[in-house]
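TL;DR need structure tokens for one chain.
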Amino acid sequence: MSRKILIVEDEPQLAELLADYLRAAGFEPSVIQDGREVVPWVRDHAPELILLDLMLPGEDGMSVCRELRRFSDVPIVMVTARVEEIDRLLGLELGADDYICKPFSPREVVARVKAILRRAAPAARQTTGLEIEPQAYRASLDGQVLDLTPVEFRLLATLAEHPGRVFSRDQLMDRLYEDHRVVTDRTVDTHVKNLRRKMAAVRADEEIIRSVYGVGYRLEAL
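>> reply
TL;DR here they are.
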């Protein structure tokens, strides 16, 4: 059965070009041009991935992404000509899974779509070898219990909720401290460094927590 991909793009020629390439790759693409139509369509059709342009008539892509994340975990790829760092960071903080900047190669878009769907597949998201016990505040890797502080445990548990998804430092800070104390970005970096060291003691040859320059961190699917 074909996998549904929603293209939200108000440039008809570009939208049709993407649809042609996705169709040739075995997907079932649909196109919407007005941002106001996206949420009702997603509720009715449940696509497996959304290519979402930022600049749309009716409702902009940022607002659409924010609304979608209130009820759906569908992978969202932002497509835009706005390459400023603040837009890139804001898009990911709203829950986007990736960013593609115009102009782009349609082949690259298809490759990104395939990669994200592989990452989001249930088998990939199980993070084989990693077990997290929230009630006991205990985590183990390949059967070996990790000696984690409460903050390190919350960090790992947060990243493990969505393997492959990038979490910004601000998102992580909101989850790490139950008393919501004010800490710096470098505090998060230090906790990540310590967590990496403890996981590397079990798997020395893998970079399980990967840095995404200028944005934050993601847990690789194990």
